[in-house]
Design goal:
The structure is a homodimer. In chain A, about 45% of the residues lie in helices and about 15% in strands. By secondary structure, chain A is α/β, with parallel strands linked by helices. In chain A, strands 1-12-11-10-13-14 form a six-stranded parallel beta sheet, sandwiched between helices. A six-stranded mixed beta sheet of chain A has the order 2-7-6-5-8-9, with helices on both faces. Chain A has a three-stranded antiparallel beta sheet with strand order 3-4-15. The relative contact order of chain A is 0.14. At the A-B interface, α6, β4, α11, β14 and α16 of A face α6, β4, α11, β14 and α16 of B.
Chain lengths: ~425, ~425
């Protein structure tokens, strides 16, 4: 953990290093991923079977080896504690409501020149969702990816998920049941992304692929960008807590650790104007780490990437926050409203002392798939728009073409595109 | 040119081959582009200077070698024919009006559980626009990229454009004047994309890069995706004309050639229900090719990729069009309205006999930067959204957290994320 103060002589240099740091493991998996993709593209299911046996120790032979049925998902759901069932249902309902209100409006109008113009939004035909196996198999992620696609109107949703040694995560199956998914393939890794992008004998290709994954999955998605749509390049995630001295140190410590427990590459940053409070949070983090079942991961993250930054005045915080462009920003201050408009680059903002980031991971409604690694400078969280596309349309009457056509003819000729000019001028004679 | 009929025995196979064809030149430039990017990232302006001297035969020494000033753009504008000046102004005004209406609305509401939820759209801080030199240096493209960024509220717009042998295209400068751009760098290729993405001593880094370019530029953008936002992976473009037999064959021929003249990899496809009309269009294309100054390119495209497809009934056309997912679709039929809702995958649709595609390239208003190479299945044309990002926000009162928090605690514990659970449960006690 690094402790800084804006009044330190070396502050700017130290802060710039934090902003520019690449926290990702620099595994160069690009070449391996390229080979896997080419192999799946050429050999289809046979290649998928080979990789799945090799990487997941799962043999794909019968239909049941390949695919998990809707019945199995329903059974997993019914076997859950009612508390968890209710939790999944509440989360799904709130995610659905928030995303339904995101549906974009079509446009259709005729302007003063008499040209009818518009744009129509339509869903993609098919989306693929990657759901990690193992440690990061989160039912909440399945809901956060699947529900926006469903709300967008996507007809076919195909989930791919590795089942190492044949093990499936019943919570993920239960979430699939809640989300209404009936196509789940027991494949993972770069090979699963390739199968979704190009299609195989069994798995029909999709148009968009979303969902989190390890370095191989992320690189495969990056390589398939353009063949299909993808949500984003995901990287290590982060939280920035801006807190005054009137917060409970234990609360803020838990918030910082909730990010740190995800992964050793996660980053938790506290900005406060109260140096004593900063010390109390630091102590609380140390205490909580001691008892935390995920303490090993959280400690690795906090040690390597944690930052406590003391400012002279909280009015300095927004400028620093905008340079960090964090995935999650908590405003644990007396008047979060006053700060909100100044936070221009952030994936999601959590206002006030009783809005811990974790509530947004599950049940608040907005998507928890958010831009990481400073990408909030230019990227947005997952939304229904990631599963839709817009088609513009133009309709010019004869009169309208006479009004605007000659300008287009002049520009086309100046650009050296005579057939463009002719396609208009023929209609003007 | 390939002529097909849906009644041919081999139709499905031939059509599938057209849908799946990769028309791009398969230059494997990825490794070279990677080396250029790394070099610019490490050595900055020195590397930019080396590459610009080598590839563009332009030496970057003085400030004027590096950068084109606003004054030079104004002079280029003033030196234009008034017809062209008016054309650029009309285009700019109409593009501005169409894109202004695209600005998304923010959201801010409190739901029944008492949770305040919302989303705020903000522009990126800086955008970089690539403008090709040489044959494809189109002022219209500059307007189509720059104006949406300006409308989005982007404060800084940096244009990069190669000036081979020191030559600049005055029309492009004039368009820059019209668009209000005052930062133009005389660099191009993958090295210019790297400079925009990582920044150099002279060129500050940007957040989003848009604009067309050759294979090297496209690959550089693809590699920088994630470091910055990019508009899309551009490929060879295409037009699909759906026409009944009541059209003038010369008009439709000109429309097909307006796409073909762009590039030998462009594709023009006619679908008609009238075999005689198909023949008349084919003849008209041959005649027009003879006189066309861009005939060599257009012929290469038409020979290699042109398709005339005769259907038994125009009701077959939408399903074929959706498989082709073309960049541009013309509906040159008596009742284009009836077909429009069935065209689900298209970049832009042009309705009726007096709406040639070329009008949309210049002055209609909607963006002419559109998804190519079947990507209209999942991608949209350039819009203000490409220069903005959305930040969600959540505010839970103490009561609201008590209403939805326990479900989040249960889910977090089930996912094995105890610090997530604790950050909420501490606030509930």
């Amino acid at each position: 953990m690094q402790r800084l103060s804006t009044s330190d002589a070396g502050f700017e240099k130290a802060f710039a290093a934090i902003v520019d740091a690449r926290r990702s493991s620099d595994d160069d998996v690009a070449a391996d991923v390229r080979a896997i993709i080419e192999n799946v593209r050429e050999k289809g299911d046979a290649a998928l079977g080979d990789y799945t046996q090799r990487f997941d120790r799962h043999v794909l032979t019968s239909d049941a080896d390949w695919r998990i049925g809707a019945e199995e998902c329903r059974e997993a759901y019914e076997a859950l504690d009612s508390e968890l069932r209710d939790g999944l249902e509440l989360a799904a309902e709130r995610i659905r409501a928030y995303h339904a209100a995101q549906l974009p409006e079509n446009r259709d109008y005729t302007d003063e020149a008499g040209v009818r113009l518009g744009a129509r939004w339509t869903p993609v035909d098919a989306a693929g969702l990657y759901v990690p196996g193992g440690r990061a198999a989160y039912p909440s992620s399945l809901l956060m990816n699947a529900i926006p696609a469903k709300v967008a109107g996507v007809k076919r949703l195909a989930v791919v998920t590795p089942t190492p040694d044949g093990n499936v995560n019943p919570l993920v199956l239960a979430a699939a049941h809640v989300a209404g998914i009936d196509e789940i393939w027991r494949v993972g890794g770069a090979q699963a992304i390739a199968a979704l992008a190009y299609g195989t004998e069994r798995i029909a290709r999709v148009d968009v692929i979303t969902g989190p994954g390890n370095a191989w999955v992320a690189e495969a998605k990056r390589q398939m960008f353009g063949v299909v749509g993808i949500d984003m390049v995901a990287g290590p995630s982060e939280i920035l807590v801006i807190a005054d001295g009137d917060n409970h140190p234990e609360w803020i410590a838990a918030d910082l650790l909730s990010q740190a427990e995800h992964d050793p590459t996660s980053q938790s940053i506290l900005i406060t104007d109260d140096a004593d409070f900063a010390g109390r949070v630091q102590d609380a983090v140390a205490r909580q780490l001691h008892d935390l079942p995920t303490g090993e991961t959280a400690l690795a993250s906090w040690d390597a990437h944690g930052v406590i930054l003391v400012v002279g005045d909280l009015s300095e915080a927004p400028a620093l926050a905008n340079r960090l462009a964090a995935e999650h920003v908590e405003l644990a201050v007396a008047d979060p409203e006053a700060l909100l408009p100044q936070i221009r680059h952030a994936g999601s903002v959590f206002l006030g002392r009783t809005t811990p980031e974790a509530v947004g991971d599950y049940v608040a409604g907005p998507n928890h798939v958010l831009p990481t690694g400073r990408r909030a400078r230019f990227a947005s969280g997952l939304s229904v728009l990631d599963f839709m596309k817009r088609t513009s349309f133009i309709s010019a009457s004869d009169d309208a073409l006479r009004a605007i056509g000659p300008a287009a003819v002049a520009l086309a000729e100046a650009e050296g595109l005579p057939a463009h000019a002719k396609s208009i001028s023929l209609r003007l004679t």
